[in-house]
Amino acid sequence: MIRDILKNAIKEAILNLSLETDDIHLEHPSDFAYGDYSTNIAMSLAKQTGRNTKDLAREIVNKILEKKIKEIEKVEIAGGGFINFYLSREFFTQNIKEILKSGEKWGSGNFLKNQKTIIEYTDPNPFKEFHIGHLMSNTIGESISRIIEFSGAEVKRANYQGDVGLHVAKAIWALQRSQHRGSTSVLTRSEVLGNAYAEGVLAYERDEKAKKEIKEINKKIYDKSDDKINLLYENGRKISLERFEEIYKKLETKFDYYFFESETGPLGKELAEKNTGKVFEKSDGAIIFRGKKVGLHTRVFVNSEGLPTYEAKDLALAKIKSERYDYEKSIVITASEQKEYYKVILEAMKQIYPELAKKTKHISHGMLRLPSGKMSSRSGVVITGESLINEVKTRILDKMKNSALADKESVAEQIAVGAIKYSILKQSAGKDIVFDFEKSLSFEGDSGPYLQYASARASSVLERARRQDIKSDIKKATTDTIELEKLLYRFPEIVKRASDEFEPHYITTYSTELAGAFNSFYAMEKIVEESEKAPYKIALTEAFKITIKNGLWLLGIKAPENM
RNA sequence: GCCCCUGUAGUUCAACGGAUAGAACAGGAGACUUCUAAUCUCCCGAUAGAGGUUCGAUUCCUCUCGGGGGCACCA
């Protein structure tokens, strides 16, 4: 990477001046007028050594220039002592060549080489709706998966689903009642399950008798002692899971492993019981972890009914995952409301499976909230993932009504999913998103369709070049370097950063900037023309298309050829 | 009450301790006989408040004021 070349040159220059530094800060100036890269090294060294900043900067620059690095056009000192690097025409041309050669691999790296990584995300619960919060987790998880995969890691995608627990009992309780009421279509639609869950929640909170019954059902689900319940349970579980699969398909996500709470439960309970007295303690009939001792919360792992809670199950999950796949790194992605919770899990894990705890990393994303407040499947205030996708798709189809595209349906769906994913991935992952349909989902400006449109446009230009039989060529590069070229070479380092920080939004921001640069280029220049400049402009277009397509792939967004 | 996160144009978001705080939407003015106008080109407009550290603070520290989340048998 060009960045490393510059860093090394700076490092060497500093060593030659008998100075030392371990941290070379190199950044892209916000304004192209300040060059392509900039370092503040002279300012920080001047402070340490008590020397004059500009003198020191001059000496460093001279040392660097002595090396005659072909990628560097000129080096200037500006501002309070910044050293600004301007890359050479030769560098930009060679970069286009490299992009065309690398194709799908352009931007990929090897810094996580073969690191065995298991990454858990989405985690919807059977018997509950797949709502837009799950959409958010899935979008972020899938993007992070692709980013680290692109950085060389071996990635296994995992989905952990709560198929047992009180929430299931609540839904089953309501289903039983509606059966009594004579409803026959109970289990044909998954919405029914969502409604049943909401009904069960309400009853659990307001009706002591119902609460007792639900707890009883919960036990029976665990020990499978009641045939009628077993039947309702199996059917409901199956319908939920099938429904989830349909959504994963639309979202272009595919899991390698599925884990269920029904399988983590027994081990979780066993672990809690086995370690009672050491890691856990008994309190009011429950087995708890005294997180308070280390500044965390105290949490229940096995309740007084003798059933494992989510805590114990999550602990067991780490172990079960490692048995299924011998990972070097385990990433768990959840909403930020589980942040404190997960700290407790990690603390307990540290004491029981220290080697697994070391490998585990919890990443939390913000919460998707509605303008009216927190979304909650408990109260039935939810927007399902599917209804959102369909709603957006309808609007896009309306926009496309005059289009002659053959595969309108599938393109519209790609655009709908792209728009939704973009709106989730455009901001840093930790922050909440207030989801307002009109404001959050845009088809213009900063948006998924903006990127897809730029990509489709490039495709159309390239198609025209093919028809006119004008081949791309980098030999006759234009003399002045345009913004598009000044952005293209940055792609690999953007990917690296996104990978290091598990932050897809760097890719989103960069891709948008890049698409903007291409759109300007497109507006200013006729690309396919009878001119000796055409081959290079076509090469640029091709390089752009490769980059935006790879960028979109990292976001989990498809790049349609036409739209 | 205790702990964690957060506060940037009217709105939704950027900014790896750096240079004139970037975009998009909304608002105003332009650009399609020319490769896709879901586009492009201008204009208008912001760091919650008060201290501190630093050559330099949206970024780090302290306090105040807003918003959110979590704190024992839900997940």
TrEMBL record:
EC numbers: 6.1.1.19
GO biological process: arginyl-tRNA aminoacylation
Subcellular location: Cytoplasm
GO cellular component: cytoplasm
Residue ranges of domain Arginyl tRNA synthetase N-terminal in the record: 4-87
Record-linked InterPro entries: Arg-tRNA-ligase, Arg-tRNA-synth_N, Arg-tRNA-synth_N_sf, ArgRS_core, DALR_anticod-bd, Rossmann-like_a/b/a_fold, tRNAsynth_Ia_anticodon-bd
Span(s) of short sequence motif 'HIGH' region: 124-134
Enzyme type, top EC level: ligase
Chain ranges passing through the membrane: none
Keywords assigned by UniProt, alphabetized: Aminoacyl-tRNA synthetase, ATP-binding, Cytoplasm, Ligase, Nucleotide-binding, Protein biosynthesis
Pfam families referenced in this protein's UniProt entry, alphabetically: Arg_tRNA_synt_N, DALR_1, tRNA-synt_1d
Molecular function terms, GO-annotated: arginine-tRNA ligase activity; ATP binding
Domain DALR anticodon binding intervals: 451-563
Reaction equation(s) it catalyzes: tRNA(Arg) + L-arginine + ATP = L-arginyl-tRNA(Arg) + AMP + diphosphate
Predominant location category: cytoplasm
Subunit-structure text: Monomer.
HAMAP family: Arg_tRNA_synth
Family: Belongs to the class-I aminoacyl-tRNA synthetase family.
Protein name per the record: Arginine--tRNA ligase
Gene from which this protein is expressed: argS
